[in-house]
Design brief:
Helix content is 27%, strand content 22%. The protein is an alpha/beta fold. It has two domains: 2-260 and 314-360, Alpha-Beta Barrel (TIM Barrel), CATH 3.20.20; 400-513, Sandwich (Immunoglobulin-like). An eight-stranded parallel barrel has the order 1-2-4-5-6-7-8-14, surrounded by five helices. A five-stranded antiparallel β-sheet has the order 10-9-13-12-11. Strands 15, 17, 19, 20 and 21 form a five-stranded mixed β-sheet that branches. The longest helix has 17 residues, at 128-144.
Length: 514
């Protein structure tokens, strides 16, 4: 544990590490479009915040999925020790296109200003005149393009600047009217006043990543939960620490990574293991492609996917793990919302943004959100947090018969939430005659390879905004002999005709879960 804490305290800031890896490029120069003001939006509690950073090295920002964002931060101009700004082209080259496009979809645009240099912090923050210089320059850039506010990303802050940092943020907030501050997952030096910062107009974007940093040993980039064999540090613990410090949960945006990290290792199959060199970032769509080719593993403690490669270990997010974290932040922790570092890292996955939309829309599917009073019950939650007051129901499926050598699929798709909220699945192996790996244990239909005859039992619980279900159990009986066609494995299917393969899979599924 001491070694982990030491490495974490020495870790570079997450965005600084990404800047070092990717930032040696110029921001694209985009044409300026006719200005569109941000349309007035009625106050609504039906949409959680979805806050995205776009780095200047990312793909074309005019192609972003604006429909499912609420805020966009353009990364980033650089703060200097005298209060002046440099690298302004990273904003001026793109803001003329991005602001009108974002406003057309009701998305707020923030100019992101960064400082990752201790010497700059020490010279700038205590000086009222230098703060005033920076605020005037930031306001001018925002006003020139009709943008909506500023994102402040000052990382590596020392504790003796804690009060000065709050003063700067409050002065900036008064000048531009909408400020969000990026804050660390673990505030080792106690430099950030969480309670005061959560009173900013926009609140705080917690950088919920970098728990295992590039110079340390491999592990989850954004562990949802902590516990053995890992440390206790996790997204859950981070949010708890912010709330304990007095932060307003309605002003917390939980930032999630759309990138993984890959470490060189002499024994990549060892989990947890030791690295033999610094890690590097792998963007989400590339990491998913690697997992598809080489095999996805899953850590059930931290709820994190990873890949064991020939001489490396890759920990990364995918749609399923991101969805689980969104559901936890929005429905369980009831925060203002979630955010992403960084946009375009998700690639062109057609399933990603619909998943984000479904899990950040707070009105239950099928609920009456017309506001005309004709729908009966308003759907307002009672003390249980659910509009109906009922908990979700886990249904682990009917008993299954299988044979040695079969890949056995469990089926929890009959589980439900009475209010229609999305479900999170948690499968656990309870009894088994062998040590097994339950793949996709966070999905409705996980599977395992039955290599030993005997009785296996699995417990399913489901969670949603309504709460956590009671557990349900399914028993799998594995015999030594094949049960005819139903014993065929997926590896045998390519040798069958397509029609026969389809019929076989249907018969096999009916055999196991009907």
């Amino acid at each position: 544990m001491l070694a982990l804490i030491t490495t974490l305290m020495a870790a570079p800031s997450p965005h600084a590490a990404q800047l070092a890896q990717y930032g040696d490029v110029e921001a694209p120069l985009l044409p300026r479009l006719p200005y569109l003001p941000l349309p007035p939006i009625a106050a609504s509690d039906t949409q959680a915040t979805v806050y995205g950073y776009h780095p200047y090295w990312g793909d074309d920002p005019t192609g972003l999925n604006y429909e499912d964002l609420t805020h966009l931060a353009i990364f980033a101009v650089v703060l200097n020790s005298d209060g002046s700004l440099s690298n302004k082209s990273r904003w001026t080259n793109v803001a003329g296109s991005v602001v009108p496009l974002a406003h057309a979809h009701g998305v707020k645009v923030h100019l992101c200003v960064i400082s990752f240099d201790d010497a700059v912090h020490a010279a700038f923050l205590p000086s009222a005149s230098r703060r005033a210089t920076a605020i005037a320059a930031l306001k001018q850039l925002v006003d020139d393009y009709g943008a909506d506010g500023v994102n402040v990303d000052i990382e590596g802050l020392d504790a003796d600047l804690r009060t000065d940092m709050v003063t700067f943020l409050q002065e900036l907030d008064a000048a531009v009217g909408d400020v969000v501050v990026a804050t660390p997952a673990i505030d080792w030096s106690d430099a950030f006043d969480e309670a005061a910062m959560s009173q900013l107009s926009g609140g705080m974007f917690i950088m919920g990543y970098g728990y295992h940093w590039t110079g340390g040993d491999p592990g989850p980039n954004d562990p949802l939960f902590g516990g053995s064999p890992w440390s206790s540090y996790s997204l859950e613990k981070t949010v708890d620490s912010y709330l304990s410090a007095g932060a307003d949960p309605t002003k917390i945006i939980l930032g999630l990574p759309l990138y993984g990290q890959e470490w060189e290792m002499s024994n990549p199959g060892e989990v947890p293991g030791n690295s033999t060199g610094d890690a590097w970032s792998v963007v989400m769509d590339e990491a998913i492609a690697i997992a598809d080719d080489e095999g996805r593993s899953f850590d059930t403690v931290t709820r994190s996917p990873y890949v064991i490669r020939s001489n490396t270990q890759l920990w990364y997010p995918d749609n399923s793990s991101v969805e689980e974290r969104i559901q936890w932040a929005v429905y369980d922790a009831t925060l203002q919302g979630i955010g992403f570092w960084a946009l375009t890292y998700e690639g062109n996955d057609p399933d990603f943004w619909p998943m984000v939309h479904d899990n950040t829309t707070l009105t239950p599917p099928g609920g009456d959100d017309t506001g005309d009073g004709t729908g009966g019950d308003s759907g307002a939650p009672d003390d249980s947090g659910s509009p109906t007051g009922e908990l979700p129901v886990a249904r682990a499926g009917k008993p299954i018969e299988a044979a040695v050598g079969d890949t056995v699929f469990l089926n929890g798709s009959g589980s439900l939430d009475p209010s229609g909220y999305p479900l999170r699945y948690v499968w656990t192996s309870r009894t088994a005659p062998q040590k097994i790996t339950l793949e996709d244990a966070d999905q409705a239909e996980p599977h395992f390879l039955a290599e030993v005859a005997g009785t296996y039992s699995f417990e399913l619980t489901v969670e949603s905004r309504s709460g956590r279900s009671a557990p349900d159990t399914v028993v799998v009986t594995v015999g030594n002999e094949s049960a005819g066609l139903c014993a065929a494995t997926p590896q045998a299917l390519p040798w069958l005709g397509l029609a026969a393969a389809a019929a076989l899979m249907l018969r096999r599924k009916a055999k196991y879960i009907s």
